[in-house]
Automatic annotation (TrEMBL):
The keyword Coiled coil does not apply. It catalyses: (6S)-NADPHX + ADP = AMP + phosphate + NADPH + H(+); (6S)-NADHX + ADP = AMP + phosphate + NADH + H(+). The lineage of its organism: Bacteria, Pseudomonadati, Bacteroidota, Sphingobacteriia, Sphingobacteriales. One of its GO terms (molecular function) is ATP binding. (6S)-NADPHX binds at residues 72, 132, 182, 247. Gene3D superfamilies: 3.40.1190.20. Its EC number is 4.2.1.136. Residues 37-304 form the YjeF C-terminal domain. Its cofactor is Mg(2+). Keywords: ATP-binding, Lyase, NAD, NADP, Nucleotide-binding. InterPro entries: Carbohydrate_kinase_pred_CS, CARKD, Ribokinase-like. It comes from the Bacteria. SUPFAM superfamilies: Ribokinase-like. This is ADP-dependent (S)-NAD(P)H-hydrate dehydratase.
Length: 307
């Protein structure tokens, strides 16, 4: 018997109880709901190549952090680093530079001043913005500048709050971008929802209208593609319910964009590996910190890639 959508929602309603969820990304079905399978991950993930070098795996820019939430910037950068971007640069306030150099010496630094210089942003093939970046005027300027470039971005946390409060910014979002809201952020963006089923329907509509991928985070995370398909990620654990976990996910998704995966694929791989790392760690402990998840992430693709 097919799974029903209600099995993946924290609440259930009469409609979600009768919606079928198909197994696999390419299942022949009319249902928009698809449960990601391990075989899908094996089909998507590409091995790292002989004779490849750091340039092969792209350069990601993480725009994040302010004085009190520099940790979010470090966590997003660590997610990106551990998920295998060839190069990672963090655009953070100067007050975080020492912490960055000490904790993640592989990650480079772009000052906020340099960020605004002409052509400073040409070298990056993935850009994520939001973790701990704040909702200050500077944060608005950072987001505006990125949107002006008319390039897809990954927007999380405060970047979502800025988009929610400024319709001009929202209109600047480019097709192929990825939004990664949790439930509250989603409702700030698109209105309050009484049920998860109605939230999912809004996500499908807005992803199609905007031509974007929405990663609606929860125990089961929903990856909603621009064509309205909802991919359901079943990796993860309540052990992961600790601050900073979403920041790490943002960095991981950025790393897969940098490595040349399309938005939907990067979101699927990122969510699957992030959750799988957390679940694996949770086998021997009741909770896991976000940094541990980031550090575990490089082990997970090895389970699915054929050499
Ligand atoms: N080390 C650092 O520097 C860290 C920095 N961080 C950065 O700080 C910034 C603000 O982050 P934030 O956590 O204060 O605000 P936000 O995420 O809007 O939560 C507000 C309230 O919403 C709720 N809520 C949250 N999730 C929910 C869910 N899934 N489902 C349901 N409800 C949910 C919950 O309220 P409650 O339901 O408990 O009343 C929560 O208290 C942001 O940029 C982030 O990147 C953090 O990542 C932590 C580590
Ligand atoms: N109970 C859970 N089961 C599976 N994954 C979870 C659970 N709780 C949290 N997560 C994952 O942790 C992340 C939390 O993201 P978010 O709420 O943005 O955290 P933060 O803002 O603190 O970084 C999401 O990827 C979510 O799927």
């Amino acid at each position: 018997m097919a799974d029903k959508l209600s099995a993946f929602l924290p609440d259930s309603d009469s409609i979600s109880k009768i919606q079928d969820v198909s197994r696999g990304l390419s299942a022949a079905t009319d249902s928009p709901y698809r449960l990601i399978q391990e075989s899908d991950i094996s089909a998507l993930i590409r091995p790292r190549l002989d004779f490849s070098h750091k340039g092969t795996y792209g350069h990601a820019l993480i725009i994040a952090g302010e004085r009190a939430t520099m940790g979010a910037a470090l966590l997003a950068s660590s997610g990106c680093l551990y998920a295998g971007a060839g190069l990672t640069t963090a655009c953070i306030p100067e007050s975080g530079l020492m912490a960055l150099n000490v904790s993640l010496p592989e990650v480079m630094y772009l000052s906020r001043e340099k960020f605004f210089e002409q052509e400073a942003l040409n070298r990056y093939n993935a850009v994520a913005i939001g973790p701990g970046v704040g909702i200050t005027e500077e944060a608005v300027a950072l987001l505006s500048r990125i949107l002006e470039l008319k390039r897809p971005v990954i927007a999380d946390a405060d970047a979502l709050n800025l988009l929610a409060s400024n319709s001009l910014l929202m209109q600047g979002l480019v097709k192929g971008s990825i939004l990664t809201p949790h439930m509250k952020e989603f409702d700030r963006l698109f209105g309050i929802h009484e049920t998860w089923y109605s939230r999912l329907q809004t996500a499908r509509e807005r992803a199609a209208e905007l031509g974007i991928v929405i990663v609606l985070k929860n125990q089961y995370t929903f990856i909603i593609d621009a064509d309205g398909t909802v991919y359901i990620n079943s990796t993860g654990s309540p052990a992961m319910a600790q601050g900073g976990m979403g920041d790490v996910l943002t960095g991981i998704i950025a790393a897969y964009i940098a490595q040349g995966y399309a938005a939907k694929e990067a979101a699927i791989l990122g969510c699957f590996f992030h959750g799988a790392a957390g679940s694996e760690l949770a086998k021997t402990r009741s909770n896991v910190r976000a940094l541990e998840v980031a550090e575990y992430v490089p082990k997970v693709p090895r389970w699915y890639v054929s050499d």
